[in-house]
């Protein structure tokens, strides 16, 4: 059984499979410009238009450095993705890459994690879109009932606070939420509160993705042009209102405050891997995918750093804990007309991020189904539209329903867990390809830097830095019980042990430094996420294992063909 669980696919098998079962009918229409556009559409979405506010509130202007740090981490990962994409030019993203490097069980785990990543990411984007849309309508004098524009959790919390502490304790937003609770129609004693705009936009984008890749590409290109225009508008226009004193203190809450924004900042960058899910719709995937990944990541990193500095320069970081920070900063400085322009175009801009994620997830399901690990219907290609029709519809339902009823805060951290996990395995997969010689088939390769000694040197430097500059952290650890260390610090311990293991293996096998750096940076960022997110993620993986052993293991085409 163990041999079957870890049986690997070779590149030729995967490419042949992509041309069978009708999946070869996907339309090949995407070039480098289209891929870069899709990448920017995915990366510059809710991250810059929504979660950047909370990250700036927690970390101050120093969050701009966190964007640089996370961008560097993503560059290492993007290089690894690019090598895999040039080697295995089919849909499936990290799922397909794990099948080549680690075998079927790991591929399933990654595929299942990616389902969570894309679904949760789109829930965040849909909810963020709704907030901007409602704000835009109010700018035109159109006011939707509050109970139609928010998650029930917001209204319930505000109403409970109102009852316990009185109206004087509520912020303006909380008062609106409490009013929504009181004004909502009832089904018995249950108030009917839901985020209708979030559900509607998910439905409309799913319909667009369903009817074709050409239509999706055209819509994405138009929306990205508008989006980049808005961001440049904010950067150039806002620069005139920057007050350098707002950048002092630069890191008001220290390194912990900066790192508390890791999930939000990382969420802003995860979209670049969605490009790889369109491999079978690229004209020349082995050449174009690597270029597109690196280009869109570099462009977006520069935009994020500049806009963070402008926002925190215009308004003190203590005022940034808002859901629509780009519009808010212009309202704050009295330029309501610019805030209105930002709100209107932000609605269009965020839609493009929603489109790309809705485009990506069905293609992962299609690939998993093609391998026999999911039901056959997920691999169905529409005869007219040339899209994975059934998988697209299911994706729309699974995103729209939670977006109607859940709070955005619940999803932001959760989406990063599965993403980090996938990124680590992709970087590790490059080490495997180098070791086994598969890399010789790659049209693009991660630049090789011999890590035989450098990985160990880096370990000693990091340990030295912690010892001499991290005495507060060391004191915190000393005050924790064993149970508290296991609950809150276990992943940090895992991080150091993995670094030690990579130092030994790197010395023995002459590992390439850049994929190792990708593994370590992603694992470190992973260790900073809350325990509750990990608990939910583990439950999700356990459900996935039940599905795999209940269906996928028995229907796996790779294992059945081998048995035959």
UniProtKB/TrEMBL annotation:
<feature type="transmembrane region" description="Helical">
    <location>
        <begin position="411"/>
        <end position="432"/>
    </location>
</feature>
<feature type="transmembrane region" description="Helical">
    <location>
        <begin position="509"/>
        <end position="527"/>
    </location>
</feature>
<feature type="transmembrane region" description="Helical">
    <location>
        <begin position="533"/>
        <end position="551"/>
    </location>
</feature>
<feature type="transmembrane region" description="Helical">
    <location>
        <begin position="292"/>
        <end position="317"/>
    </location>
</feature>
<feature type="transmembrane region" description="Helical">
    <location>
        <begin position="337"/>
        <end position="360"/>
    </location>
</feature>
<keyword id="KW-1133">Transmembrane helix</keyword>
<keyword id="KW-0472">Membrane</keyword>
<feature type="transmembrane region" description="Helical">
    <location>
        <begin position="453"/>
        <end position="470"/>
    </location>
</feature>
<keyword id="KW-0812">Transmembrane</keyword>
<feature type="transmembrane region" description="Helical">
    <location>
        <begin position="192"/>
        <end position="210"/>
    </location>
</feature>
<feature type="transmembrane region" description="Helical">
    <location>
        <begin position="35"/>
        <end position="57"/>
    </location>
</feature>
<feature type="transmembrane region" description="Helical">
    <location>
        <begin position="482"/>
        <end position="502"/>
    </location>
</feature>
<dbReference type="Pfam" id="PF13906">
    <property type="entry name" value="AA_permease_C"/>
</dbReference>
<dbReference type="InterPro" id="IPR029485">
    <property type="entry name" value="CAT_C"/>
</dbReference>
<feature type="transmembrane region" description="Helical">
    <location>
        <begin position="63"/>
        <end position="82"/>
    </location>
</feature>
<feature type="domain" description="Cationic amino acid transporter C-terminal">
    <location>
        <begin position="513"/>
        <end position="556"/>
    </location>
</feature>
<keyword id="KW-0813">Transport</keyword>
<feature type="transmembrane region" description="Helical">
    <location>
        <begin position="254"/>
        <end position="272"/>
    </location>
</feature>
<feature type="transmembrane region" description="Helical">
    <location>
        <begin position="385"/>
        <end position="405"/>
    </location>
</feature>
<feature type="transmembrane region" description="Helical">
    <location>
        <begin position="94"/>
        <end position="115"/>
    </location>
</feature>
<feature type="transmembrane region" description="Helical">
    <location>
        <begin position="222"/>
        <end position="242"/>
    </location>
</feature>
<dbReference type="Pfam" id="PF13520">
    <property type="entry name" value="AA_permease_2"/>
</dbReference>
<dbReference type="InterPro" id="IPR002293">
    <property type="entry name" value="AA/rel_permease1"/>
</dbReference>
<protein>
    <recommendedName>
        <fullName>Cationic amino acid transporter C-terminal domain-containing protein</fullName>
    </recommendedName>
</protein>
